[in-house]
């Protein structure tokens, strides 16, 4: 009977957690996706890449919101059970509050490992794939980005200025500054037209001059028509992988001189050691706050809805749990500022967990 009862609350908790994390994740993802629209509006990438890039950042969002969603789910389930007198079923069947909390803590540890899995493997992998999409993509919306009277520099090493766009789609008074090659050059053309399709992406320029700098010598020649190929140019979007996109084993290997893990995508410079250490703490250690949040939330069991101060106690527990979540985020930022702060960050959750759990044991005996 006890197993059936625990199975029910576990099922209710996991269903509500799953529904909530998907819903909140989609809300946050939508807000993030609006920010990512700059990839199209300013960097010249296509709609397809925009959606793929946004979707690949979804695991990062899930990893970020897991503790908060778990707290909201557990808080709601316990409040709901108390409101419907369903918690009395546990006590009637001989389940004491300590046994109940131990089961919740066990579930929270499972969820902790779930967050570690997402943070250490799935999120970095998906973010790196998103970064590679930018790195290997072409500029799909070049035509729509070119506007008259504006300097356009979405292409790395290339600046374009169009004085006027004509009704037939052609351009007048065109200036190009190309510094992508060893010999930079400037091009002026009276007229031009952009051909942007699957087969070719070129700027046809008519009646102009090319000013080329070769070996500190200026060469100028005129032309009636030249084709300026845009296929070889990449966007200004950042394509170098960030630390949060690097494989966890590769990050750990930075602290092991004898490591055989290949690090092709980044260098283990000492100046980045603090950032790497902080990233590893975020992935592998910060999830320890999930069991702590579970213990704090389970203080709802100490009070009953029939008590006068029940709502006050419920609100205090809610605020304290939120403070624990905020502390887990803020303390991470200062965790590598010194050796003392590093050891404090490692010890703090365990000290709080032991002290709060001990307080729960004493409180449960007095109820």
| Count, helices | 12
Helix and strand succession?
HHHHHHHEEEEEEHHHHH
The averaged pLDDT comes out at 81
The end-to-end distance, rounded to whole angstroms, is 24 Å
Number of structural domains: 2
Radius of gyration: 29 Å
Describe the structure.
The structure is a single chain. The protein has 12 helices and 6 strands. By secondary structure, the chain is α+β, with helices and mostly antiparallel strands. The chain has 2 domains: 2-137 and 240-365, no CATH class; 145-229, no CATH class. It has a 6-stranded antiparallel sheet. Helix 1 (2-36) packs antiparallel against helix 3 (47-56), helix 4 (58-83) runs antiparallel to helix 6 (97-136) and helix 4 (58-83) runs antiparallel to helix 11. It is elongated, with a radius of gyration of 29 Å. It starts with a helix and ends with a helix.
Could you outline the blueprint of secondary structure elements for this entry?
Elements: H1 2-36, H2 38-41, H3 47-56, H4 58-83, H5 87-92, H6 97-136, H7 142-145, E1 151-155, E2 158-165, E3 171-178, E4 185-196, E5 201-214, E6 217-229, H8 248-253, H9 273-284, H10 289-297, H11 310-333, H12 339-365
Antiparallel strand pairs: 1-2, 2-3, 3-4, 4-5, 5-6
Helix pairs in contact: 1-3, 1-4, 3-6, 4-6, 4-10, 4-11, 6-9, 6-10, 10-11, 10-12
